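Shipment paperwork, digital attachment
Item: protein structure file
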Amino acid sequence: MPEVKLPEAGITFDSILYVIALVVAVSGVLVALVKGWEAWKKISVRDRVAKLEGRMSKVEARLQLGDKRFDLQSDDMGHLLNSQMALMLHFVSGNDHDKLREQITALSDYMAQRATKAAQYAAEHEQIQNGGNT
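Attachment content:
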């Protein structure tokens, strides 16, 4: 029977390189897995959707409040035009004091109501800015 020669047992330069490469590869894979898991936790779709829905409801509340304020400004413009008309009628005729008195009464009533509405809208705006919903 022929004699079989086994390679010498020992540490060679190639085996050291192989072990180092294996350790670097395994640690690289582990680091990639850990970083990927952390990124996956941060970019959770459910969390992003919930966050966006919260922001969207806040924006919708602000838009509704803006619509209310535009309505209030439209009312303001109507009362200003009525007041100007009463003043012009008084200027032209010179003796139409009744219309002027009626308009003063209507305007003072409106201004009292407007002050409460403006305070209410300011409170709603503050609540929206603090994160609450109307």
